[in-house]
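job 3f2a | input accepted
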Amino acid sequence: MSRRHHRNDRLTESEIEAIVLAAIPLRMAIQKCFISLKPFNETYSLLHHHVAGLDAVLERITGRSLDYRSRDLGLVPRRDG
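job 3f2a | predicted structure (81 res):
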């Protein structure tokens, strides 16, 4: 039987990496939807709010600032080799 997660449990590095790797394509897909929307309509505002929330969660769990110039937001460690 698996133990129940508590609020003060910490994520492992592999769990953080899995979350980031799943969140980046989701974020990019949401932003592609922006192209077909007019600014300041309800759907645009809702999507913008969710992307901002996702960014805040990513910053919080990784402990790093997002680098919007980078394809992976500067969150995925570079692998040499």
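job 3f2a | Residues 13-34 form the longest helix (22 residues).
job 3f2a | closed
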